[in-house]
Amino acid sequence: MTVNHRAEAEKHLAMAARHLTEVPADMRIAEVSAVIGQGYAALALNDQPSGDGWAPTPATQSDEPWDDPWATAPDIATDIPEPVRRILAEHLAEMLLDPTATDVQKWARDITFELKREGIDLTPDIEKRITDLTLGTDPPF
């Protein structure tokens, strides 16, 4: 059995519109129908062109890379001057180790994660500073 994804999408989206306009109390039914219709519409993008000349949009056939919101940001920490990285790491490490202020620890984590999300991963610098503060500096070998 073959499914015409385009027809199914149109059917479910029309049902969603009908429930939304005719019976506003059926908002949940309209929402579910819209989601199902969107799913079929996404599947229809992969279908072959039909007799009426419909085909996926050129944007879906592009070979250009697209921005993936879940992709990791490139690490640009090395672009930041070493003294700035050191100062940030020192202060964030001290904030994370502060035994009295849980808000300060939360701020330090939030700042660290925001920087990392933007591609500035200071985690190794912070870990080294925490080690230096808790165990002392590495002895020369």
If you had to describe this structure to a student in words, what would you say it looks like?
With 141 residues, this protein is mostly helical. The chain has five helices and no strands. α1 runs antiparallel to α2 (27-44) and α3 packs across α5. The chain is elongated, with a radius of gyration of 27 Å.
The share of residues in extended strands comes to: under 5%
Q: Note poorly predicted spans.
A: 58-62
Number of H/I helices: 5
| Shape descriptor | elongated
What is the percent of helical residues?
55-70%
Rg: 27 Å
Query: What structural class do the secondary elements suggest?
Result: mainly alpha
Mean pLDDT: 78
* Alpha carbon gap, first and last residue: 72 Å
Please report the total strand number as a whole number. Answer: 0
Oligomer kind? single chain
| Helix-strand pattern | HHHHH
Biggest beta sheet summary: none
Number of domains: 2
Question: How do the helices and strands line up, and which of them pair or pack?
Answer:
Elements: H1 5-22, H2 27-44, H3 82-97, H4 102-117, H5 123-135
Helix pairs in contact: 1-2, 3-4, 3-5
Give the tags:
mainly alpha, 2 domains, single chain, 141 residues
